[in-house]
Amino acid sequence: MSYDFKKFKEQQKMEIIIEEKNVYGNVLYYPSCETAKLFCKLLGCKTLTTDKLTIIREMGYLVGKKQTLNRQEWEKIMDKNSHKCWL
């Protein structure tokens, strides 16, 4: 009996979200969703390497990056939208 991967892909959202962090000059990819955390658990790691992410993509998953803002970017957005925040 064969498994219908097309049907599986339609039923489940094939996407993981990662967060990119620069740690002591090294770019590390941390899991940011349950599926990415399960991949790390399966692989016995805390972060995902570019090689591992390539294989995950080859499996049909989309890999998205979580957007993180530094303090200056956050303040810039809040200043632009400050009139919208207060009534």
In order across it, which strands form the biggest sheet? 2-1-3
The biggest sheet, with number of strands, parallel, antiparallel or mixed sense and barrel status, is: 3 strands, mixed
**Rg calculated over all Cα atoms:** 18 Å
- Number-wise, the strands total 3
Mean pLDDT: 82
Number of DSSP helical runs: 5
Content-based structural category: alpha+beta
Number of domains: 1
H/E element string?
A: HEEHHEHH
Q: What quaternary form is this?
A: single chain
**What is the terminal-to-terminal distance?**
62 Å
Helix content: 40-55%
Proportion of strand residues: 15-25%
Q: What ranges have pLDDT less than 50 throughout 5 or more consecutive residues? A: none
Shape: extended
Keywords, separated by commas or semicolons:
87 residues; alpha+beta; 22% strand
Describe the protein in words.
With 87 residues, the chain is α+β, with helices and mostly antiparallel strands. The protein has one domain. It has helices at residues 5-11, 34-43, 50-58, 71-80, 82-85, and strands at residues 15-23, 26-31, 62-65. Strands 2-1-3 form a three-stranded mixed β-sheet. The mean pLDDT is 82.
Give the SSE map.
Blueprint: H1 5-11, E1 15-23, E2 26-31, H2 34-43, H3 50-58, E3 62-65, H4 71-80, H5 82-85
Parallel strand pairs: 1-3
Antiparallel strand pairs: 1-2
